[in-house]
Design brief:
3-stranded antiparallel sheet; mainly beta
Length: about 80
């Protein structure tokens, strides 16, 4: 079973990243750890944990280039 997640960037004065972590069967994944890293130097910028419905929000994101990782007990790390 592979890990699958959907995210999108929304601008509303401050940037935030919101999304839902799901497995390939569409089941939401609770307590997934999401890390937002700078593309420039791979430094962790922000992190959060998905809720019981698999939803997550990362608030107050500066404009820039990033990559997002997702870690779960079941699936390990996915980039």
């Amino acid at each position: 079973m592979e890990l699958f997640f959907v995210s999108c960037l929304i601008a509303d004065g401050q940037h935030r990243i919101i999304g839902t972590v799901k497995d390939m069967d569409g089941k939401e994944i609770e307590n997934a750890v999401l890390g937002l890293y700078s593309n420039l130097d791979s430094v962790l910028v922000k992190s959060t944990i998905s809720d019981s419905s698999g939803h997550y929000t990362i608030n107050e994101v500066d404009t820039g280039s990033y990559f997002l990782t997702c870690t779960t007990i079941e699936f390990g790390v996915r980039i």
